[in-house]
From TrEMBL, chains A, B:
<protein>
    <submittedName>
        <fullName>TetR/AcrR family transcriptional regulator</fullName>
    </submittedName>
</protein>
<feature type="domain" description="HTH tetR-type">
    <location>
        <begin position="16"/>
        <end position="76"/>
    </location>
</feature>
<dbReference type="InterPro" id="IPR036271">
    <property type="entry name" value="Tet_transcr_reg_TetR-rel_C_sf"/>
</dbReference>
<dbReference type="Pfam" id="PF14246">
    <property type="entry name" value="TetR_C_7"/>
</dbReference>
<dbReference type="InterPro" id="IPR009057">
    <property type="entry name" value="Homeodomain-like_sf"/>
</dbReference>
<feature type="DNA-binding region" description="H-T-H motif">
    <location>
        <begin position="39"/>
        <end position="58"/>
    </location>
</feature>
<dbReference type="InterPro" id="IPR039536">
    <property type="entry name" value="TetR_C_Proteobacteria"/>
</dbReference>
<dbReference type="InterPro" id="IPR050109">
    <property type="entry name" value="HTH-type_TetR-like_transc_reg"/>
</dbReference>
<keyword id="KW-0238">DNA-binding</keyword>
<dbReference type="InterPro" id="IPR001647">
    <property type="entry name" value="HTH_TetR"/>
</dbReference>
<dbReference type="Pfam" id="PF00440">
    <property type="entry name" value="TetR_N"/>
</dbReference>
Length: 217, 217
DNA sequence: ATATTTTTAGACAGACTTGTCCAAATCGTC
DNA sequence: GACGATTTGGACAAGTCTGTCTAAAAATAT
């Protein structure tokens, strides 16, 4: 049994393990030091791997950055998609459920490690390597906004919200949700669960004051 | 006449001119390349000055970064203060005047060169040199928020707004005003006058839907 | 016109990086 | 135990960058 694939799998596993370890360390170091300041020796050391292995896996330093960005954007997109699926389409207590949803959004997409990495890499290398993030830029936020806008539009149809422009409302929702977290996000501070809850509560209350309607029958 | 001060003034002028030229070029290069990636030769060339002059004026590369950050934060603070003074304390048409105010805020503080530089430097070097921005962090946003909150509180007292927490409202106002500009700001794109106007209009409309009251007598 | 300060260009040592090469060691499979 | 692939540590050349030093040039004040 498992006549010819077992070796490949085993090899692939250790291979992949090291590959991921390198990507992980590279993400950390690139974010801390920036692309120019990142040191391949340091990345290798943090990955628990020899420098030659880094070169074996990814070739170039620039190539390594590309791989890191691809990895992170994929994970981020997956997280966003997954969280969007938990939107309260048929709410009972809209305020409460929107707060829960926004908390999830922040935890899974903005405040976690990947979110921090993407934000920082975007900021530090976005202008120098525009191609790197072109894909994310086009498919990432635009799709998120559109998906969220569609949900809000449906809530408006079922009488929960009073919206002029669902797209604008979606962007405003996201902006409000981050209003109290801006500083922490910029400085890389960790946000406590409680901070996140009150920030999100403030945001949803404001959003519903602007666009909410009394509970429909 | 001008017996003993004239020389000092003249020297100071050229001295200061070169000093500013260096700071300006350094700000550009630091923002483009990050601290580690910034090249003193390049800064000198962009400033139209010899490298030795850079060292004469600011000593260290790290020292130069400190000087740049100090310069920019001072200019930003001045701009914020100046713009806050134009807040519509006694509005006639609140929506219109808040929009005008928010447009000024964005143009003078967020979307101009200094705003872009501060944001980027903060993002790229904020974690590595926390002391650098400690002063700004403490006195910058906190003061802005407080000042804006005080204005909103006064509007609430005079019957224009219905606020629970003026501080939260102030942060939300700023967040809303930037909602549609996020992507452009991150990628360093220039925002057109028209983009800025519609973004700001959307923001103020939402803010007033949440917190506005019919015009008081 | 002269004296003083500032600026300039270039050379320089020391340190650090990247990317390559190679022989020895390690690992998992047959 | 033997085999093939992968990993390792170290050495290496080529390049870059910082910060210092020097003597000449330019600018400025008296």
């Amino acid at each position: 049994m498992t006549p010819a694939i077992a070796p490949d799998i085993a090899v692939a596993r250790s291979h992949t393990a090291k590959r991921l370890s390198v990507l992980d360390a590279a993400a950390r170091v690139f974010c801390r030091e920036g692309f120019t300041g990142a040191n391949i020796d340091l990345i290798a050391a943090e990955a628990g791997v020899s420098r030659q292995t880094v070169y074996n896996h990814h070739g170039d330093k620039e190539n390594l950055l590309v791989a890191v960005v691809r990895e992170i954007t994929e994970r981020i997109n997956a997280g966003v998609f997954e969280t969007l699926a938990t939107f309260p389409d048929k709410p009972v207590d809209l305020e409460l459920e929107l707060i829960e949803f926004a908390v999830r959004l922040n935890q899974n997409c903005m405040c976690n490690r990947d979110g921090k990495f993407l934000r920082k890499l975007l900021q530090t290398e976005g202008e120098r390597y525009p191609d790197l993030f072109a894909g994310w830029r086009e498919h990432g936020p635009a799709k998120t906004w559109a998906a969220l806008a569609a949900r809000f539009a449906r809530l408006a149809l079922s009488g929960w919200l009073d919206l002029d422009d669902p797209d604008v409302a979606a962007r405003q929702f996201l902006a409000l949700v981050n209003a109290d977290l801006q500083m922490a996000l910029i400085f890389g501070d960790t946000v406590s669960e409680e901070q996140l809850r009150t920030a999100t509560t403030n945001a949803v209350r404001c959003f519903l004051r602007a666009y909410g309607k009394p509970r429909p029958v």
